[in-house]
Each structure stands twice: as structure tokens, then as C-alpha cells.
Amino acid sequence: MKIIDGKELSAKIRQTIKQEVQEIKEHGNRSPLLSVILVGDNPASQSYVRGKENACLSVGMENRTIRLDANISQAELIQVVRQQNEDPDVDGILVQLPLPDHFETNPVLDQISPDKDVDGLHPVNAGLLLAGRDGLLPCTPNGVMEMLKSIGLEDLSGLNAVVVGRSNLVGKPLSLLLQQKNATVTMAHSRTKDLAQICSKADILIAAVGRPKMITSEYVKAGAVVIDVGINRMENGKLCGDVDFEDVKDKASAITPVPGGVGPMTVCMLLMNTLKAYKEHESYGR
Ligand SMILES: NC(=O)C1=CN([C@@H]2O[C@H](COP(=O)(O)OP(=O)(O)OC[C@H]3O[C@@H](n4cnc5c(N)ncnc54)[C@H](OP(=O)(O)O)[C@@H]3O)[C@@H](O)[C@H]2O)C=CC1
Ligand SMILES: Nc1nc(=O)c2c([nH]1)NC[C@@H]1CN(c3ccc(C(=O)N[C@@H](CCC(=O)O)C(=O)O)cc3)C=[N+]21
């Protein structure tokens, strides 16, 4: 069984991003800039945002974190998003989710200019993905595809993929990307009947649910590739995936760990999207 090391793979990809950023700056151009908007003081969100700041630093990109009080209004938050849209130095805008309860998420995300939507969550980018056209892809799904590519799974013709979870952030876009690569995709969710039986037909099994260790060996076909997107914080403070790693590892042909799996790839794809947005911005000479 092979462990797909997301930390190692993301470090490798970050290295190429770093080189490109360096070349950009050596030619006297401005640096790509990611702007992260954090509302409130949710500890998990704060830690993710620090992770994004460090990632930008590690590749020499500029980073701006806008920390806002949890009590600001929806209108005030939208004003901040608009300022970032209008700022020509800003290539990428990310509104850290979840927002505090009194905000409506979709109307806020809808305000992000699609060309700066490095999370790939704006309806325009979601629509481009659905249509199989070029746009900014959501980071976690894109990171999973990179992990599959790294073990030689690029064309998925003839393979069955089962994605457990159908969120707009992960399950739904990932299902589309897998299908684009010619996998035969099943999207499973909380209303799915006989989940274990369906999962056990998968050559590629993806867990994006948010239930610690729910995927045990009975869900897994011998030799399957198992990708664990879940990030669950346990009472002891440790992170745990949706897959019961110890139980599944000897049955799978390849498996991603948590931590050190999909999480670091997500952050890496965010940098890649910011660089992509930068290139688009520069070539259109705004
Ligand atoms: N590694 C990373 O970078 C990232 C990790 N995550 C993690 O991935 C996980 C999923 O995130 P996200 O998609 O945002 O979560 P959501 O809560 O938005 O979606 C969860 C999905 O799982 C389904 N589900 C819930 N319970 C079951 C069940 N018992 N059996 C089958 N399906 C079930 C839900 O079904 P239904 O639609 O019917 O409700 C839903 O589609 C979380 O642990 C999250 O922390 C998220 C983003 C990035
Ligand atoms: N607008 C928005 N976009 C997101 O992409 C987004 C979000 N909001 N809100 C929360 C989720 C979650 N998410 C993670 C990113 C990195 C790790 C990550 O790097 N995890 C490390 C461990 C980090 C640690 O130790 O805490 C790992 O798995 O090895 C995890 C989870 C992005 N999300």
C-alpha cells in the first residue's frame, strides 16, 4: 500500500510556483497578491488563515489578511469585498468560511469578482466547471485531482469513482472533475441507501463527509485508491479523517493520511489559482 503524501507533493508544486513568482519579480513586475477576509475569531478559521499566510510567504507571494469584527453587517462585509475587487494590486480574494451566523454566505460570495475568485465558489466559475470550460477551480477538488495524477491516475477511463458527499465546496465539483477525466462517477450522500455496498464497487473512493472514521474496510474494494478529504478535530485536539486509516490501509492500494493529505494540497492549489489569476490580470493589461 502506498501512502499519498500531500505534504511532500504540495511542497514540490510550491517549489515550481515559487520559481515562477521569482521570475515574475525579477522581471520587475508586481508580485501576485492574495487577499484573505476573515470575519470573527473562530479558532479553526484563524489557524487556517495563518496557514494561508505562511503558504504565500513560502512562495514569495504578497498576502493581505483583512480581519473584521464578527459584529459588522452584511453590507459592510460586501463593501470590503468590493474594495478588493477594485484594487488592481489584488489578484485573489478568499472569504474564509464559515461566516458568523448572521451573514448570508451566498450573497457575499456572489460579490467576489469571478476573475479574483481563487476559491472557485462564484456561480460563474461553478458554471464554467459544469460546462467543462476554463475557469478557477475549487481548491480541494483540484488538489485531489493532483494527488491522483501523482500516482499515475490521469485518464480515469474504465474506473469507477464514488464520491461520498455532495457539497458545493468539495463533493459536487470533485465529481465533475472526475467525470471530465472519464471516470464513471457515483455521488453518494446522507440519503444514499446501501452506502457500504456502493462504496465497495469503487476503484477510487473519496470521502468528503465530516464524520470521523466512518469509512471502514467493509466500504473498500481490495486495491482501491482511497482519498480522505475529511478534517475532524477530536476531543484530544488531534485531527482525524473520514476514513478509518488503520482499518483501511492494508486493503487499499493507495491512501491519503490526515493530517498531511488533502489539506496541504488545498492550500497549494489556492496559490496556484492566485498565480493563474495574476497571469490573466496581467495579460489583459488592466
Ligand atoms: N482537506 C481540506 O482541505 C478540506 C476538508 N474539508 C472537510 O471535508 C469534509 C466535508 O466538507 P464539506 O463538503 O464542506 O461538508 P458539508 O457538511 O457541506 O457536506 C457533507 C456531505 O456529506 C454528506 N453526508 C453527511 N452525513 C453522511 C452520511 N452519514 N453518509 C453519507 N453522506 C453523508 C452530506 O449529505 P447531504 O448533502 O445529504 O446532507 C453532505 O453532502 C469536512 O470534514 C470538512 O472539514 C472541507 C474543505 C477542505
Ligand atoms: N473560503 C474557504 N475556502 C476553503 O478552502 C476553506 C474554508 N473557507 N474554510 C475551511 C475549509 C477547510 N480548509 C482546509 C485547508 C487546509 C487544511 C490543512 O492544511 N490541514 C493540515 C493540518 C492543519 C492543522 O494542523 O490544523 C493537514 O490536513 O495536514 C485543512 C482544511 C479549507 N477550507
TrEMBL record:
Pfam families per the UniProt record, alphabetical: THF_DHG_CYH, THF_DHG_CYH_C
PROSITE patterns tied to this protein: THF_DHG_CYH_2
UniProt keyword terms in alphabetical order: Amino-acid biosynthesis, Histidine biosynthesis, Hydrolase, Methionine biosynthesis, Multifunctional enzyme, NADP, One-carbon metabolism, Oxidoreductase, Purine biosynthesis
Domain Tetrahydrofolate dehydrogenase/cyclohydrolase catalytic: 4-119
Pathway annotation: One-carbon metabolism; tetrahydrofolate interconversion
Gene3D superfamilies reported for this sequence: Leucine Dehydrogenase, chain A, domain 1, NAD(P)-binding Rossmann-like Domain
Residue positions binding NADP(+): 165-167, 231
CDD domains, A to Z: NAD_bind_m-THF_DH_Cyclohyd
Enzyme Commission code: 1.5.1.5, 3.5.4.9
Record carries keyword Oxidoreductase: yes
Family: Belongs to the tetrahydrofolate dehydrogenase/cyclohydrolase family.
Function field: Catalyzes the oxidation of 5,10-methylenetetrahydrofolate to 5,10-methenyltetrahydrofolate and then the hydrolysis of 5,10-methenyltetrahydrofolate to 10-formyltetrahydrofolate.
Quaternary organization: Homodimer.
Protein name (database record): Bifunctional protein FolD
Organism expressing this protein natively: Faecalicoccus acidiformans
